[in-house]
Amino acid sequence: SKLPSWARAVVPKIFYVTEKAWNYYPYTITGKECGRNDCCFCSFLPKFSIHIETKYEDNKGSNDSIFDKEAKDLEREVCFIDIASDEIPERYYKESEDPKYFKSQKTGRGQLKEGWRETHQPIMCSYKLVTVKFEVWGLQTRVEQFVHKVVRDILLIGHRQAFAWVDEWYGE
């Protein structure tokens, strides 16, 4: 039901995706694969994969070469995500999770206004290298673009929540 109508037309009603993640801070690899490495088998999507590499650094997003070694042969588009200013899909919006309005009781951090990355400390940047492959003629570009948009929305919402939920995990 969450897929667009053009995707529902070609995807069976019942399917699954297996996700495996390797977390060893400050580096994480998450891969969702179908039909590869015995991760799972989806007969209708034999050539589909999502691979996300994450590196965390104590900076404001200023490391332009963090993935140069891993992505040297890939065509890349850099996309900055601003948890305070970027719009999220309306159905996911919660004022209590909006960094423009949230202020932490435990840390005093919050109410991120325009230019917050230049004025707030500390800041940790989460760099993501997202690779999507869908090797099906006629659908490849559309599906890959759709998945990139969905992943971007998930990352934006998740990082907004991590900021707004700081009082639930800080000091624990």
From TrEMBL:
One of the record's GO molecular function terms: phosphatidylinositol transfer activity
CC terms in the record's Gene Ontology section: cytoplasm
Superkingdom of the organism of origin: Eukaryota
Name of the protein in question: PITC1 protein
InterPro entries: PI_transfer, PI_transfer_N, START-like_dom_sf
Gene it is expressed from: Pitpnc1_0
Residues annotated as domain Phosphatidylinositol transfer protein N-terminal: 1-171
Pfam families, sorted: IP_trans
Organism expressing this protein natively: Oxylabes madagascariensis (white-throated Oxylabes)
